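Justification of computing resources. Each target in the renewal requires a structure prediction run like the one illustrated here; the chain below, 155 residues long, is used simply to show the kind of job we budget for.
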Amino acid sequence: MKVGMGYDVHRFAPGRKLILGGVEIPHREGLLGHSDADVLVHAIIDALLGALGLGDIGELFPDSDESYKDADSLLLLGNVMAFAKKSEWGIKNIDCVIIAETPKLTPFKIQMKENIARVCSLAPENVNIKATTEEGLGIAGKGIGAKAILIIESR
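Resulting structure tokens:
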């Protein structure tokens, strides 16, 4: 068994879609990033890469590479899952927290779980997504952050 921890944060920017867990969420601004800036999926990718000992998301999908411009982060996660499967490792469970003052995320969490579970070959009950605020403090005041912890097991 191995454990990985991931963390990501992006600030809000006008003219961008807000994508979290592969779900487009209605909001006045989206998150700024080279890809779709899906902080939840980015945190999961970093946790998986950490558990596999393969560095971090910036090394594998650098923002200097135009082929990742506006990339769907769920597709990037699928690429990392291919590495895991080749190495005969699979995710056992994922526990995440999204940190945001706005918007309210509860109505979207089920679809996020289903998207992530599908890409990671998991049952949705093995993906847990929590949402919290920072009471106007920290990163959530300017954007959205996410943290993820996951456990992988040899197949």
